[in-house]
Write a structure and sequence with these properties.
This protein is of the alpha+beta class and 171 residues long. Helix content is 28%, strand content 27%. 18% of the residues are buried.
Length: 171
């Protein structure tokens, strides 16, 4: 799926991908599969999945849907539906239910405009992950430095003494 250009010196220049596969949190996800899961909900008229930069070179998947005329749908209902059909890492962090999608001059869904309007900090999943990261950083910053610890070669955990507030050798 990678597109490259061969330069005159023989090196290759990465141009992007010809498919819609993205990498998020170490997993490869096909955005078309996410859209297919969204469209499997009978009241969904159109669906768009896209990535939003999360910081530190990582991306998070977000999505938007429009509903068929006369139908009502909530983001939570869509989220629950796709969570039953996709692996956890492919479930969008946020799903917006919209009246209509922005369009390009040729009538296609304008995903760039959807991406630009995305606000990943509003995602409750991201808020939980940020809290967990800060908690972990807090634990590590309060842990005593152990220069002679051989835990890396051990099958035992090195976190147990830290979490119990002990210092010294690894458990």
């Amino acid at each position: 799926g990678d597109l490259v250009e061969e330069l005159p010196d023989g090196n290759l220049k990465y141009l992007g991908r010809k498919d819609r596969q993205v990498k998020t949190r170490g997993y490869r996800v096909e955005l078309d599969e996410v859209e297919s899961a969204l469209l499997s909900l009978p009241v969904v008229e159109e669906a768009a999945a896209f990535t939003v930069p999360e910081g530190q070179g990582s991306n998070v998947i977000e999505a938007a849907v429009t509903v068929k005329e006369g139908s009502v749908l909530t983001s939570d209902a869509v989220m629950n539906h796709v969570a039953e059909r996709l692996p956890h890492y492919a479930v969008p962090a946020r799903i917006r239910v919209m009246d209509a999608f922005p369009r390009t001059s040729t009538g296609k869904i304008n995903r760039r405009e959807l991406e630009a309007g995305a606000t990943p900090e509003n995602s409750s999943r991201q808020a939980r992950e940020l809290k967990a990261t800060k908690t972990t950083e807090s634990i590590w910053s309060s842990a005593p430095a152990q220069r002679d610890c051989s835990c890396r070669s051990s099958t035992k955990t090195s976190l147990l003494p830290i979490l119990k507030g002990q210092s010294g050798a690894c458990a």
